[in-house]
Each structure stands twice: as structure tokens, then as C-alpha cells.
Write a structure and sequence with these properties.
two-stranded antiparallel ribbon; 7-stranded mixed β-sheet; Dehydroquinate synthase-like, alpha domain; 45% helix; single chain; Rossmann fold; alpha/beta
């Protein structure tokens, strides 16, 4: 992966002050627009995809009150009369079979053709379920991602992973279906509670820990500015993160190789989320933060990573206010057997063995399947007892 804080390049196509990251997938390539205020300028770009017809906007109740009017004004400015949006309840529980059925029926009721375009306006939940609906409706229609959370802007909106959750685990039902365009308006992040910003920031840190040690060092100096709302710092962090993900997805769209590295912290994190019911007790990014610390700690135990690097990762995540241990989550009695059972259902399990993303140090992540189960159990038992 070539992106670093020194080599990230961005064209200025689109609104003034917009960084454009290109995800190269041949005929299915698309742009990721990053900037302050790009949502208000998005009308012409969306109109080019819909050929002037009104898209079907899918959002949630919270985001509708904050950003739907801006999107609709942008569409009107491009000569498109918006159709009524489909508004779903907010929260992770929306990524379910009942809500997916409701969404599909609402889309199909409109008598769509294969030229129809969906627009996902919201965080990762809305992006995931809308993308899956686009992959499923009439066996596949186009969609546009407009992520309004930091986590969605740097991770879930880019790369074409779509889906819903099952009682057996997170994101186990879905499809790879790339968007036609991603519009990441960093001004939208100003409406987020600090906890949501921090949850997204964990995914930003992930890119530094995987392969971008210079970016991680930049975050150590500037991460507090990103979290606090500094516009330039946020734009830089989102652009670097999107470039990093685009570089990996462009060479490994369906996670047969390097894309698995993007799951650093997720095998542990998803199990922690499952144990807390995929709700507000532990947000996805908070689970990833704890999971990344556990992945570094496991790497140290296996003699793969210097303890100093694990301490550095933990210290930075803790310094901005992210949880770094299961015991940082209030009111939860952790069951190690339950966590291990959840990890065994992870999408990366192959031939009955869990694929772990481990590390040899900051910016040196790799995958490993032959991990001693006893080492994992010991790590978890100590982590939940701290």
C-alpha cells in the first residue's frame, strides 16, 4: 500500500477544497469526495449517475433531521425533484432481516427499473443495509454512499461490503456491491456526539497500525485535533484513511489477501459487540479499539511484536478517550467461553481455524491462522479480569 502522510495525493475535482480519492476497479471504479460542505455541492455528481432522475434516498430518523434537507436542496439545484425518502429507525438493530424486508418492500413498491439508484444517507448501518438492498433489488442496481459518521466515512462506505446481521453474528449476510460514488462531507461530523466521533477515530488509527507508521505518528501529534473537530485535521485524516482503504480494495476486492488486514481488531471486537447485544453498551469502533489492543497484546505473547509498540498503540487510543480493555466497559460480566464461541463464527474462519490479524509492530500487520487456542484463552481471561 503506497499511501502515507507524505504521499497522499488528491485532485480538486468537484467542490472547492475537495479531495478526490479514486478507487480503481476497472469499469467499476469510483470517486470518494472528501471535504467540508461537499454534500451541498453534490447535486450535479448524483444527477450524472441518475441521469437526471430522482434517486431513492434511504436514511434514518436522526440523520433525516440533520442532513436530508441539504441533500434535497442539492438535488433540486441540479434539476431533480426529490422523491420521498425512506426513513428507518436509527441503531445497529436496523441491520436485521425484518428491517431489510421492510426496506426492500418499500423500494419495490415504487415500481423501480434497473436504472433506479439508491442513495444511502447516514452512518454505517444505513450504508450497509442500503448497499445490500441495492445488490438485491432486481439482482443489482446502482447506489451512492453519503456517510455522515466518521466511522462510515473512513471505513464502511468504501469498498463495497454490504449486509445485515444475524443472531449468529455480525455482517454474516450480505454481498460485495460497490457504490458508484462516495460523498464524505466532513462538516457532517460536527453534528456527532463525541462518543460517535471517538468510535470512528478507532478506525482511523487502524490504518496507521496496519501499514502506515508515519500516519500513526501524525495521529499521535494531531489525533486530539481530529477528535475535537479541527476541519483541516479531519479532512486530512479522512482522506488518508480513504486512500489507504482504496489502495487495498483496488488490489483485493473480495478479501482473498491483503484486504483481511483491514480487520485488525475486528475478530476480538465483533465478539465483544455480540456479548453486549450490538447496542449502545459497546459501539463498533469501541470494540475495534479494544480488539486492536488485544491483537497487539496477543502478538507480544507470541513473540512477534515488541512490547513497546503494543504499549504505544494502547497509550494513544487511551489518550483520546477510547476503551482499551474489556473492563473499561461498565456493567458487563464477560464470559470467555462465549467470546471464543463468537470468534469461532467469524467470517474469516477457514477449515475451523480463526484467522487473526496480528502485527510485528506499528504499521506491520499480517494474518495468521495457526494461533494456539490456549494463548487466546489465556489472553482473554487476563483481559476480562484486569
Amino acid at each position: 500500500m503506497s499511501a502515507t502522510t507524505d504521499t497522499v495525493t488528491a485532485s480538486t475535482a468537484g467542490a472547492p477544497g475537495t479531495d478526490t480519492v479514486r478507487l480503481d476497479l476497472g469499469a467499476r471504479s469510483y470517486d470518494i469526495l472528501v471535504g467540508d460542505g461537499v454534500l451541498a455541492e453534490s447535486g450535479p455528481r448524483i444527477a450524472g449517475i441518475t441521469r437526471g432522475r430522482a434517486p431513492i434516498v434511504v436514511t434514518d430518523e436522526t440523520v433525516a433531521g440533520l442532513h436530508l434537507a441539504t441533500l434535497e436542496r442539492a438535488l433540486i439545484g441540479a434539476g431533480i425533484t426529490p422523491s420521498p425518502a425512506i426513513v428507518l429507525p436509527p441503531g445497529e438493530k436496523t441491520k436485521s432481516f425484518p428491517r431489510f424486508e421492510e426496506l426492500m418492500e418499500s423500494i419495490l413498491e415504487r415500481g423501480i427499473e434497473r436504472s433506479a439508484v439508491l442513495v444511502a444517507l447516514g452512518g454505517g448501518v444505513i450504508g450497509d443495509i442500503t448497499g445490500f438492498a441495492a445488490a438485491s433489488a432486481l439482482r443489482g442496481i446502482d447506489f451512492v454512499q453519503i456517510p455522515t459518521t466518521l466511522l462510515a466515512q473512513v471505513d464502511s462506505s468504501v469498498g463495497g461490503k454490504t449486509g445485515i446481521n444475524s443472531r449468529h453474528g455480525k455482517n454474516l449476510i450480505g454481498a460485495f456491491h460497490q457504490p458508484r460514488l462516495v460523498i464524505a462531507d466532513t462538516a457532517a461530523l460536527d453534528t456527532l456526539p463525541r462518543r460517535e466521533v471517538l468510535a470512528g477515530y478507532a478506525e482511523v488509527v487502524k490504518y496507521g497500525l496496519i501499514r502506515l507508521p508515519d500516519f500513526f505518528a501524525w495521529l499521535e501529534e494531531n489525533g486530539a485535533r481530529v477528535v475535537a473537530g479541527d476541519s483541516a485535521a479531519r479532512r486530512h485524516a479522512v482522506t488518508v484513511s480513504c486512500r489507504a482503504k482504496a489502495d487495498i480494495v483496488g488490489t483485493d476486492e473480495r478479501e482473498s489477501g491483503d484486504r483481511a488486514l483491514l480487520n485488525l481488531g475486528h475478530t476480538f471486537g465483533h465478539a465483544l459487540e455480540a456479548a453486549t447485544g450490538f447496542g449502545q453498551t459497546l459501539l463498533h469502533g469501541e470494540g475495534v479499539s479494544i480488539g486492536m489492543v488485544l491483537a497487539f497484546d496477543l502478538s507480544v505473547r507470541l513473540g512477534l511484536c515488541p512490547a513497546a509498540d503494543a504499549a504505544r498503540a494502547r497509550a494513544h487510543l487511551a489518550s483520546v478517550g477510547l476503551p482499551v480493555s474489556p473492563t473499561d466497559v461498565a456493567g458487563v460480566e464477560w464470559d470467555v467461553d462465549g467470546l471464543i464461541a463468537s470468534m469461532a463464527k467469524d467470517k474469516k474462519v477457514k477449515d475451523g481455524r480463526i484467522t487473526f490479524v496480528l502485527t510485528r509492530g506499528i504499521g506491520q500487520a499480517f494474518t495468521l491462522r495457526d494461533v494456539d487456542p490456549a494463548a487466546v484463552r489465556s489472553l482473554l481471561e487476563e483481559a476480562v479480569a484486569r
